[in-house]
Amino acid sequence: MARFYDRLAADYHLIYDDWDGATERQGRALDTVIRSALGTAPATVLDCACGIGTQAVGLALRGHRVTGTDISPAAAARAGREAARRGLEMPVRAADMRALPFGDGTFDAVVCADNSLPHFLTDEDLLTALGEMRRVLRSDGLLLISTRPYDRIRRSRPASTAPQLHGAGSGRTVTFQLWDWHEDGERYDLEHFQLIPAGDDWRVEVRRTTYRALTEGQLAGLVTEAGFDAPMWRQPEDTGFFQPLLTARRRAAR
Fold first, then answer.
1. Domain limits of the chain?
2. Sign of CA dihedral 6, 15, 68, 139
3. Do the beta carbons of residue 214 and residue 153 sit within 8 Å?
4. Which of 60, 121, 139, 238 has the most neighbouring CB atoms within 10 Å?
5. DSSP 252
6. Neighbours of 222 (CB within 10 A)
7. What's the burial of 160, exposed, middle or buried (CB within 10 Å: 0-12/13-18/19+)?
8. What CATH number has the domain spanning 13-150+214-250?
9. How far, CA to CA in Å, does 157 sit from each of 69, 120, 123, 219, 244?
10. Rounded mean pLDDT of 186-208?
11. What is the CA radius of gyration of the chain?
12. Is 117 helix (H, G, I), strand (E, B) or coil?
């Protein structure tokens, strides 16, 4: 997993037509969810799969006190540079979300967005990661997870994604994915292709990883098992976020 994102970090923004615009839109959507749950004051937020900063930078721009971690050192380093370029104070470090380097009850909210959690292929790893997210949340703190819409995807089992374009004319970059489903109908191997202009030719990058296509019911059940209350799925048409978003609260101490 770390190698996949280490190799992608320099070109990650090319997935988007307008990465800066996506950062602002996603930050605004998550900010609305966080403030509606926790109140209008800025929150202390951990983005535990921050990548190059798409959600973390967006939330920091909305006034939240954001810390970013990512399993990829290259991605985490770029997130730090992107924050600094915007004049933001946003600590970032490389860390595995199964062993978060923070004390208990440190954050008001933990974000794990953009289909990051489904990289874990077993319930054991998923529960370890969710347990760490719970540990670093304050009592009644807010968890936010986003994934692909896997309930629908598992019914059709697509073999590829549509091409995404960045730039225009001879400077266009093309990004697409090929998916190879396992026999269990739940896991799939992904090949991530980018065709990047290089003079009169193309530079072709291919990166490979595996995902577990967790349904909304499966993930909500794991979140509950990990010690969270009131898991609720919210759809893009309701939140303005680009993926389905699960929210839950850390179970208060009794």
1. 13-150+214-250, 151-212
2. negative
3. no
4. 60
5. P
6. 19
7. exposed
8. 3.40.50.150
9. 31, 19, 22, 19, 18
10. 95
11. 18
12. helix
Whether residue 207 contacts residue 230, with contact meaning beta carbons closer than 8 Å, is answered with: no
Contacts of 176 (CB under 8 A, 6+ apart): 160, 161, 162, 163, 164, 193
DSSP E strands: which ranges in the chain? Answer: 44-47, 65-70, 92-94, 107-112, 137-146, 164-166, 173-181, 187-198, 201-212, 228-234, 245-250
Does the reported pTM lie above 0.90? yes
d(CA 134, CA 112): 12
For 195, list phi and psi in degrees, rounded to 5: -105, 110
Q: What is the pLDDT of residues 150-194, one digit of tens each?
A: 999 999 999 999 999 999 888 899 999 999 999 999 999 999 999
Tokens of 186: 């739940």
Cross-strand bridge partners of residue 249: 142, 229
**Tokens representing 229?**
């209350």
129-147 residue pLDDT tens? 999 999 999 999 999 999 9
